[in-house]
Amino acid sequence: MAKQIQHLDRVAIRFAGDSGDGMQLTGDRFASETAILGNDLSTLPNYPAEIRAPSGSLHGVSSFQVHFAAHDVLTPGDSPDVLVAMNPAALRANLADLPPNAEIIVNTDEFTPRNLEKVGYTSNPLENDSLDGFIVHRVPLTSATIAALADFEVSKKDAERAKNMFALGLLSWMYSRPTEGTVEFLRQKFAKKPKIAAANVAAFQAGWNYGETTEDFAVRYEVKPANLEPGTYRSVNGNSALAYGLVAAGLRAHLPVFLGAYPITPASEILHELSGYKRYGVTTFQAEDEIAAVGSALGASYGGALGVTSTSGPGLALKTETLGLAVMLELPLVIVDVQRAGPSTGLPTKTEQSDLNIALFGRHGEAPLAVIAARSPADCFYAALEAARIALTYRMPVILLSDGYLANGSEPWLLPDPADLPDLRVEFATEPNGPDGKFLPYLHDPHTLARPWAVPGTPGLEHRVGGLEKADGTGAVSYVPADHDLMMRLRAARVEAIDVPDLEVEDPTGDARVLVLGWGSTYGPVGAACRKLRERGVAIAQAHLRHISPLPRNVGTVLAGYDRVVIPEMNLGQLAHVIRDRYLVDAVSYNKVNGQPFTSAELETVLEEVVRND
Amino acid sequence: MTEVPLKLTAKDFRSDQEVRWCPGCGDFAILSAIQSFMPELGIPREQITFVSGIGCSSRFPYYLNTYGMHSIHGRAPAIASGLAISRPDLSVWVVSGDGDALSIGGNHLIHALRRNVNIKILMFNNRIYGLTKGQCSPTSEFGKVTKSTPVGSRDTPFNPIAVALGAEASFVARTIDSDRKHLHSVLRAAAAHQGSAFIEIYQNCAIFNDGAFDVLKDPASRDSVLVRLEHGKPITFGASGEKCVVREPRGFGLEVADTASVPRSEIIVHDETVPGPAYAFTLSRLSDQDLSNTPVGVFRRVARPAYESLVQEQNAAARTGVADATPDDLLAELLHTGNTWTIR
Question: Which residues of chain B fall below pLDDT 50?
């Protein structure tokens, strides 16, 4: 039977199943096939905090969403057009996210009375009318996989485990994805178990053939490649891009990188990745606690390394005293905060932007430092380089804010030529800089307001630093009132002296009266919302902050150019507070704090309302 | 190239800062002892870094003309660890007190010791909080009356030597502020040791706990309480060696006996290098809070690779062939390793 082929502009698919069903792997493979085809894409996993949740339970559901298109993609997609549900729990946990007419592929074998009961279904949703309004494909994924592997020398359990590859094969057929990469991947993954490899490849092909031959699947889809810039790409999530960025910073600065870190969700992967990059000049130190993590990094910076510490909210809270010391010592230090939903332990695997306040203000005394934020998974690479640039050039701690959404989301990244990246080389002090051959460790550069970085081992520059207030120039401990006043103002001026690029505004028609101002990971959904509004003829301007401390110099002018400023944040209005305070702009603060990223659809509605009421 | 021997003196290690401790403070004696010891190391001043926490003792780095950092309360071992790991060429010293090292910074102390980071930790123990004006510390005797414990402390104190041994320290010693010769001998042994060294220095706080260690210093009493540990020598003490250390008849401990009443062969011969920590631990328990039978000297000195040398080994193994590559080559190598694809 000839299958009908339909062309689509974009599709979002969610693979959902039990934690043990291999959904992350399945989704990741589908994304890889999609990338090789040349679509632009964005992915987002969602998995339980529990390591091994009870099988078949609602809170044991793990999912992976892939959004791909024939154009550039800004988000992993608001709601999936297709749901693959490997069991009743996966169906129940995800159904509410589906738009009308979404396609659902269910594994009918798992819809047993016992499994239905586990998740509170009193009747089988496949047999009542609860799925009316969706296009439901009933596929016996488990039994079809076992049947396909009848002639293979694998146990029934191993055969059953290959059902995710059957599903992947079916979806690969449906969306006309290339298959060679997955076959090769399976052969390599199971290189030491050739029988398992053969069974998985066979299950994958059986899934493909199932789509090709079964009448239930009458339509096949194609999504044409996007017009992507030529070059070599790799898929990165925010944490791996950030780790690459830190390595790049060290190499571009010709300095060793020292990471002091303590395991914490969702930042641990940065420690994991960097611990594998010893070859590239990185030393990692898993410290006894968050305080030792930042302390060791500061010690390494004092010794002339690029000291880095990575953490999430609770860890940042513990590090604050050391950040105050770093402000006093005027040494380079990069603090990565992969934000998660707080306060306290909060929701460790869910995303939020609620650490902006602690990043800006969370230290005793006045201890200003630089704060920047990454806007997309791949942007974490460039944000890390920028954090290092500020830390090294201006000799100060820099907090780099990422979040759980960026950390786990991934997208294709066009690999840069290293030579095109900023040159971060610094000069250590080697000679006395004061009268009579004296060394003045706190003599500040008139332009950067940075002090000399004189590392131990440099003869003639022996000096002492510490947390006590000091005199400008000599750095000697000083209780003189005028010295404290001077140093307080100097530390504030040091942050303001950082050279940051102007805030850019995107307003294609140039006649927008409403500006949406964002920071961090809201860039994708805000951008997608603006795009949809403009497609409908609604004028809207978008600006997105990389630097929050200091703010770009033109922010006030930019804001003054619009009737209304909307600030969407995954917190209860922290940037809005800063903007109102600093520029006396009555910004509209739109907030979401349910642990989930914004959808572009909700932002589209909110922004349109502001435009209409303007 | 012939090495020109360094000719430094104690004066070279004095900074230009005015020393600000209270008159009679034991810290003066320790500072002077360290300044006079440093030239013996034969290490240029710039290769030496002192890191301290917070407390009276932690003002130390300001007074030494080396590199130094006066950091935050309790965190010196963590900061010094990062420095020592990333700069194994340096001689890194930590100066701390009983509150700094054993109370607020207890976690960093034990982890630095178990890792065996090559830092020398000098813990001045005056059994009191001095800089905050006289509260009880984690080494104050049970029942001690202080500003924060007006009717007597209810806390059982730490035995710092036992804590260090429990934390897998490879070098553990105790000395006294006023005994420069002994202090020098302990510093010498610590400096020669590869890895962490923990040195407890009994130190007099003239203001808030004056005379706490007088029993160990007073010529009339010291011989009967001070147990001087010397590697390879039988452990005897008392004015004429009339007391000695022998095995307890019950359990695995040590106890004090009359030298005249035990056969010479039963007197414990001190061995700093016993592989297990149990021997040094039992030695540390000879003394009580009242300072009776107080051993001073090196309790334990065992060979164990320093943490940074193990780290360097792994780094070196990972960096084969790196010397010929430029940083940009290395970055390109990293970025292109693994799954990539090309859009034309």
Answer: 1
Which 538-597 residues of chain A touch chain B by CB within 8 A?
A: none
The complex's ipTM works out to 0.97
**3 state SS of B341:** strand
Whether A272 has its CB under 8 Å from any CB of chain B: the answer is no
Judged by DSSP in three states, A364 sits in coil
Q: Which CATH superfamily is domain A4-223 in?
A: Pyruvate-ferredoxin oxidoreductase, PFOR, domain III (3.40.920.10)
> Any CB–CB contact under 8 A between A233 and chain B?
yes
Instruction: Spell out the alpha helix ranges (H) of A190-334.
Output: 194-213, 238-253, 268-275, 290-302, 313-329
Closest-CA distance, A307 to chain B, in angstroms, reads: 9
CB pairs under 8 A between A and B: 197
**Beta strand A505-506 with A514-519: parallel, antiparallel or unpaired?**
unpaired
Question: Which residue pairs from A576-579 have beta carbons closer than 8 angstroms and sit at least 24 positions apart in sequence?
Answer: A577/A357, A578/A356, A578/A360, A578/A548, A578/A551, A579/A517, A579/A555
Among chain B residues, the shortest Cα distance to A303 is held by: B83
Q: Which chain A residue's Cα is nearest to B326?
A: A251
Position B1 scores a pLDDT of: 44
Taking only the tens place, the pLDDT of each residue in A529-559 is 999 999 999 999 999 999 999 999 999 999 9
Domain A505-613 has CATH 3.40.50.360: no
> Tokens for A434?
């004061």
Q: Which residues of B touch A459 (CB under 8 A)?
A: 44-46
User: Closest Cα to residue B163, out of B112, B109, B239?
Assistant: B109
Structural Rg of chain A based on CA atoms? 27
Domains of chain B as residue ranges with CATH: 1-212+305-344 (3.40.50.970), 223-293 (no CATH)
- Domains A234-420 and A505-613 belong to one CATH topology: yes
CATH topology for the A234-420 domain = Rossmann fold (3.40.50)
Distance CA A203, CA B138 (A): 65
Q: Report the chain A residue with the minimal C-alpha distance to residue B49.
A: A456
CA nearest neighbour of A267 among A340, A321, A317: A340
> Does the beta carbon of B56 lie under 8 angstroms from any beta carbon of chain A?
no
Q: Which residue from B15, B46, B318 is facing A458, i.e. has the nearest CB?
A: B46
d(CA B276, CA B260): 30
- State which residue of chain A sits closest to B80, comparing Cα positions: A299
Q: Please give the DSSP secondary-structure letter assigned to residue A169.
A: H
Q: H/E element holding A388?
A: helix A379-394
Q: Where are the domains of chain A?
A: 4-223, 234-420, 429-490, 505-613
Which of A298, A368, A287 has its CA nearest to residue A333? A298
Question: Can you name the residues that pair with A16 across neighbouring β-strands?
Answer: A63, A85
Instruction: Decide if B328 and A419 are in contact by the 8 Å CB cutoff.
Output: yes
Closest CA to B26 of B98, B76, B115: B98
Give me the residues paired with residue A234 across strands: A413
Q: Which of A36, A251, A459 is closest, CB to CB, to B341?
A: A36
Give dist(CA A57, CA A88) in Å, integer.
9
Q: Please report the sign of the dihedral spanned by the C-alpha atoms of residue A397, residue A403, residue A408, residue A412.
A: negative
CA distance A514 to A539: 8
Q: Nearest to residue A355, comparing CAs of A575, A523, A565, A568?
A: A575
Segments of chain A scoring below 70 in pLDDT: 1
Interface check for B88 against chain A (CB to CB < 8 A): the answer is: no
* Residues of B with Cβ-Cβ distance to A305 under 8 angstroms: 86
- Rg (alpha carbons) of chain B, rounded to whole number: 23
* Residue indicated by tokens 């020393």: B19
Structure confidence by residue, pLDDT tens digits, B204-263: 999 999 999 999 999 999 999 999 999 999 999 999 999 999 999 998 899 999 999 999
For B20, the closest chain A residue by CA position comes to A477
